[in-house]
C-alpha cells in the first residue's frame, strides 16, 4: 500500500496498515462494503466460516485498569475465569474504555496498533484454521493472516481461554 492509498482510509485503518507494513505482514487491510461489527457479519461478508474470524474482546483488568485483549475464534465464547487465572481479576470494558485504551471503536478493534499496548492472549482454537481474518481498526476494515502470524504480530501467548463445548455440541 502506498502513501496515497493509506490517506483515503479511516484513521484507525491507516494506523493498522502502517503497523502491518512495519512488521512486514504481507496482507494489507481491506475495506468491506458493509460493517462487520460482529464475527458473523464479517464471516458473511468474506464468505468464510465464523470460526475463521479472529474477534477481539477487551476486558478491564481490575488491579491496574489495564486493557486485556483476548483474540478468540469467532465461533467460541471467552471463559472469563480462564482469562482471570492468567492475568488476574477482570471486568467488562465499556465503549469509552475500549476507545481510550485501544484507539478503536468496538467492532473494529485490531490485534495491533493500539493506543496503549494491552495485555494480549490468543485463543488456541484459532489454530484450527490455515487462514483467519481480523479487524483492522474500523467496523468495515479487516486483514488476512494465518494463526502463527497473529502470535508474531502481537507477541502474545497462545492459551486455552474459551468455554468448553458441552458433550455432543460443537
- In round numbers, the mean pLDDT is 92
Q: Helix tally?
A: 6
Distance between the termini: 39 Å
Report helical residue fraction. 25-40%
Assign the structural class, choosing from mainly alpha, mainly beta, alpha/beta, alpha+beta, or little secondary structure. alpha/beta
Gyration radius (Cα, Å) is 15 Å
**Mind summarizing the main beta sheet?**
8 strands, mixed
Order of helical and strand elements: HHEHEEHEHEEEHE
Number-wise, the strands total 8
Uncertain runs with pLDDT below 50, 5 residues or more? none
In percent, how much strand structure appears in the residues?
A: 15-25%
Please tell me what the overall shape is. globular
What does this protein look like?
The mean pLDDT is 92. The protein has 6 helices and 8 strands. The protein has 170 residues and is α/β, with parallel strands linked by helices. A hairpin with a 5-residue loop joins strand 2 and strand 3. Strands 1, 2, 3, 4, 5, 6, 7 and 8 form an 8-stranded mixed beta sheet that branches. 29% of the residues lie in helices and 22% in strands.
Amino acid at each position: 500500500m502506498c502513501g496515497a492509498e493509506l490517506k483515503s482510509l479511516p484513521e484507525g485503518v491507516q494506523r493498522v496498515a502502517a503497523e502491518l507494513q512495519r512488521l512486514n505482514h504481507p496482507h494489507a487491510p481491506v475495506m468491506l462494503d458493509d460493517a462487520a461489527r460482529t464475527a458473523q457479519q464479517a464471516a458473511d461478508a468474506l464468505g468464510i466460516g465464523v470460526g475463521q474470524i479472529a474477534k477481539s474482546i477487551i476486558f478491564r483488568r481490575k488491579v491496574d485498569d489495564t486493557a486485556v485483549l483476548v483474540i478468540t475464534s469467532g465461533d467460541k465464547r471467552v471463559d472469563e475465569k480462564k482469562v482471570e487465572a492468567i492475568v488476574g481479576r477482570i471486568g467488562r470494558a465499556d465503549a469509552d474504555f475500549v476507545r481510550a485504551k485501544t484507539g478503536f471503536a468496538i467492532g473494529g478493534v485490531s490485534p495491533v496498533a493500539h493506543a496503549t499496548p494491552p495485555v494480549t492472549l490468543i485463543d488456541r482454537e484459532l489454530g484450527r484454521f490455515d487462514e483467519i481474518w481480523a479487524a483492522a481498526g474500523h467496523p468495515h476494515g479487516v486483514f488476512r493472516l494465518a494463526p502463527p502470524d497473529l502470535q508474531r504480530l502481537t507477541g502474545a501467548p497462545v492459551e486455552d481461554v474459551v468455554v468448553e463445548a458441552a458433550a455432543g455440541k460443537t
